[in-house]
Amino acid sequence: MMRHSIPNLRSAISALPTPPTALVVDIFGTKTFPLGDELGLLKYAFDTTTAWFLATAVYRLENPARGTLLSLEIICEVSLFFSISAAGVAQNRRNQHCLRRAYDRQQ
């Protein structure tokens, strides 16, 4: 959907009497970054989720992993904060029995 709106966005920005200096989009609007380059705009993406989610969503796109999730020592690092270990992601869940019961009730 965002890709289809780029021509309209281009014409709307070009028609402004005072040209903008920056393009600020949410995480789903990054498809407009080439338009920002074309128009000479600074480009910013904001994300209203946690740093943890953003780090896992973006980091792996740039550094694809080989193997399975559990074979990784660290999924990602959020600079200055903490590392997300793969060991606790899919194992050692204390509420696993609750999840199974809830799933069984839905069936």
Automatic annotation (TrEMBL):
MF GO annotations: coniferyl-alcohol glucosyltransferase activity
Source organism, top-level taxon: Eukaryota
Name of the protein in question: Uncharacterized protein
Keywords: Glycosyltransferase, Transferase
